[in-house]
## 1
Amino acid sequence: MDITCLSCHKVISDSANFCPQCGIKLKEPALSTSIGKQILIYFISFFLAPFGLHYAIKYIKRSDSRAKMVGIVSLILTISAIALMFWITSSFMNALYQPLNFNGF
Ligand SMILES: [Zn+2]
């Protein structure tokens, strides 16, 4: 299928990432949604939570439904990891300050 370049109006192939005539960027190259890449993103999302957000946003913004799905899963994992981190921290703090409470503080 052919499309018309928005910049120079030349008819070009819709598979091109850049216009061969004027060089304008036509679309973002597809993001990898391979199993290996997904595992890497999910791993980062969960174990290095704040960094996963970068991937989540990058993938969610895509119109490609497969990439979007990877982004959504990554976002859910990031939120879960952060929630878990808060829960562990608060449990730890409670355990730490428990003896003080017994002494009437
Ligand atoms: Zn062009």
Note: The mean pLDDT is 88.
## 2
Amino acid sequence: MEGTFREQLFFVVLCLSVLKGDARYMEENEITPEGLFSLLNSELKREIPEEFIYSRPLRCLDMVAAEGQFTFTADRPHLSCAAFFIAEPNQVINVEYDSVDIDCRGGDFIKVFDGWVMKGEKFPSSQDHAVPLMERYVDYCDSGTVRRTVRSSQNVAMVFFRVHTIGSSFTLTVRKPINPFPCNIISQTPEGSFTMVIPQQHRNCSFSIIYPVEIKIAELSLGHLNDFPIKKSMPGCAGAGDFVELLGGNGMDPSKMFPVADLCYNFNGPAQMKIGCDNTVVRMVSSGRFVNRVAFQYRLLDRQELQRIKVNSVEDFCFTG
Ligand SMILES: *[C@@H]1O[C@H](CO)[C@@H](O)[C@H](O)[C@H]1NC(C)=O
């Protein structure tokens, strides 16, 4: 009998801790950048037929790069699920609830997050996002009847969910409308090129590449060229209201990454750099007084290059060359 009682007590404690827990511990997910990108790579290899609406089951841990309809059905209680959504740089993610059969009062939830969260780190960082952090979460159980669609501010979004009862299910339709003024972006691929323009807006934008890459800046044009004499006495770009910084790090949040280089003078012609971190970010800081523009290309570092810069580097956070 004692054993049974202990089991019951354990069960109660378990239920309590589960009910008490919010999405917080899900954000601490054990997904590593490598894990994330093997998910992403397998997702991008799928051939998506264009003609009809694509549909497939949603998994408890999932990566979705396609438009379509995604259905989750619980085959057992799932307390900590996360689906990552990604689109092209000039698109946003639109999540629409088609049908939802979950038990909100029993502790189930579906939360859309405006961005990505990995191990507690967010992209875009709170500093660079126009929406306050708490408003970046939209919980179906709080707002479902009012907001049947949720739209992200950039090309990535996430859905956290928890479902206790076997057979509970929900279906989401994901669309990717065009974003005419993309600001924060996560690259889908380890190589590509991008031109970031901030047209006289007081905002900061980050382009994140979650692979070790060589980055080649082809052009940097900051509107202040003629009326902002760079004071040679100032170290780095201190004092410049408009500049570009290259950041390297092993987490998602650009505000927690390390500066690799600051660029606050105009130039044409390539400046290149190899950054052997899990995440490389090009971040543009814009005062709003000028039109700022940076064009760059990037490609994945191969294993030999990674080895070489690792050996030559004195940095210990991650290595650059
Ligand atoms: C942009 O970033 C800079 C430096 O990181 C900061 O001083 C400034 O307040 C930020 N601007 C906005 C609009 O967040």
Note: DSSP finds five helices and 21 strands in the chain.
